[in-house]
Automatic annotation (TrEMBL):
Entry-linked PANTHER family: GDP-FUCOSE PROTEIN O-FUCOSYLTRANSFERASE 2 (PTHR13398)
Family stated for the protein in its record: Belongs to the glycosyltransferase GT106 family.
Membrane topology annotation: Single-pass membrane protein
Name the record gives this protein: O-fucosyltransferase family protein
A GO molecular function held by the record: peptide-O-fucosyltransferase activity
GO biological process, one term: fucose metabolic process
Alphabetical UniProt keywords: Carbohydrate metabolism, Fucose metabolism, Glycoprotein, Glycosyltransferase, Membrane, Transferase, Transmembrane, Transmembrane helix
GO cellular component: membrane
Domain of life per record: Eukaryota
Organism: Coptis chinensis
Subcellular location per the Swiss-Prot or TrEMBL entry: Membrane
Keyword set includes Isomerase: no
């Protein structure tokens, strides 16, 4: 598992190679971590926006079908939405060892939506920090 600055470098490299203006973020990381990730993710001096699936908002209708069928807040449905969005993206960066990532990579292969820029976060890199020992 890489640290946030290392993840930022990886994401920025892939964003530059793929020439992508925005990144969809699907994670169970704490908001403090994703806020730090967002504050550091830049390319050529400009912030690369990290967007997440929005929470329920009565003014928006994107999730009306889920709500109508009582599926809002269902963690399995939300996970499948994230998998589908990720599988249909231009480029995908996943976490090594994650079954969530492997499901998305399988979908990308089956749907032929994969990219030569797809990779695992911090692929082939050792964590560049030393854990405190007590």
């Amino acid at each position: 598992r890489c640290n946030i600055p290392q993840a930022v470098n990886c994401i920025s490299r892939v964003a530059e190679r793929a020439n992508t203006p925005v990144i969809y973020l699907s994670t169970d990381a704490a908001e403090s971590e994703t806020d730090l990730l967002q504050s550091l993710t830049m390319l050529n001096g400009r912030t690369i926006p990290l967007v997440k699936r929005p929470s329920r908002n009565l003014a928006e209708k994107w999730d009306a079908l889920l709500y109508r069928h009582g599926l809002e807040g269902d963690s399995q449905v939300e996970a499948m939405l994230d998998k589908t969005i990720s599988a249909m993206s231009t480029v995908f960066i996943g976490a090594s060892g994650s079954t969530f990532t492997e499901d998305i990579l399988r979908l990308r292969k089956d749907w032929r939506t994969g990219s030569v820029c797809d990779e695992y976060l911090c692929q082939g890199e050792q964590p560049n920090f030393i854990a405190d020992t007590e």
